[in-house]
Give the backbone structure.
Amino acid sequence: MSRPHYRRFSLLLLCGFALVAFATSATAEQVSREQDIVDLRLGQRIQVDDGSCPAGQIKEISGARLTENGILRTQKCIPRLGPKRK
């Protein structure tokens, strides 16, 4: 490979690895109780299966905003994707 093609290939490969790293960190974690969430980060989403949402849905807790007292949590019921985990 000539020098310009080698750099372009290296850049493409690096971007591919970065994309995979971001995609795996974006998955939501699942717990059975909201009290199990100890350290919620900004932008992190955690699914809570405590039975408080209607059938076919699951509660999602997310770190929405940074405030003076820490990270503000928001919760909403979202459609459950895939089989229920135990």
Observations:
- The radius of gyration is 19 Å.
- The chain has a mean pLDDT of 80.
- The longest strand covers residues 57-67.
- DSSP finds one helix and four strands in the chain.
